[in-house]
Amino acid sequence: MQKNEEIRTGFGFDIHRLKKGGKMILGGLEIPCEKGLVGHSDGDLVLHAICDAALGAVCAGEIGEYFPPTKETKKGISSVFITKKILEIIKKKGARIVHIDATIVTQIPKMKPHYLEIRKSLNKIFKIGLENISFKSKSHEKLGDIGKGNAMQVFAVVNVKINTEKIK
Questions:
Q1: Alpha-carbon 94 to chain mean position
Q2: 18: in domain
Q3: Helix (H) or strand (E) holding 16
């Protein structure tokens, strides 16, 4: 690490309802499922949580400030597009993501068969190396809306290297 660099950590969270039909996009990848995510954008809560964590690491607010859910012009927007815009903000702050750890909490679909493909998709977006991206899942033990297969949530931690001379 350079003399004027430090590691910062951000935390992100997102939750979305599920409904019959529609697409299930997680980490930029379409996952087969009988239910899809409900959201103003494509509902990719994995990318949303990671973006919030990255913004938190550089003290730049949260995703809704840049892409408000009240703007009809943003309805159905790709979360990969949103992520690329958030990465531009991170770069302007003198930072770059060096590690991602995301955990999805869901009863459906079973995520383990998709771990590697989601990690590869995240690496295609963030370009930080597969060895720097962790993705895992937990069930909700059939409790509440998540346990009944009506919602899912994601927790994410992102580490960035930031140039302390560029912090504003």
A1: 20
A2: yes
A3: strand 5-20
List the beta bridge partners of residue 128.
none
Q: Does residue 168 lie within any of the structural domains? A: no
Total domains in the fold of the chain: 1
Residue-wise DSSP of 53-114: HHHHHTT---HHHHS-TT-GGGTT--HHHHHHHHHHHHHHTTEEEEEEEEEEE-SSS--GGG
For residue 12, count CB atoms less than 10 angstroms from its CB and return exposed for 0-12, middle for 13-18, buried for 19 or more: buried
Q: How high is the pLDDT of residue 21? A: 86
Is 37 inside any structural domain? yes
Domain containing 152: what range? 5-163
CB atoms within 10 A of CB 91: 13
Question: What is the CATH number for 77?
Answer: 3.30.1330.50
Q: Is the pLDDT of residue 17 over 90?
A: yes
Q: Which of 92, 91, 94, 96 is nearest to 132 (CA)?
A: 96
Mean pLDDT across 64-70: 85
Task: For residue 131, give the DSSP letter.
Answer: G
Higher pLDDT, 97 or 1: 97
Please report, as a single letter, which amino acid is at residue 45.
Answer: L
pTM of the model: 0.94
- 52-61, 74-83, 109-118: range with lowest mean pLDDT: 74-83
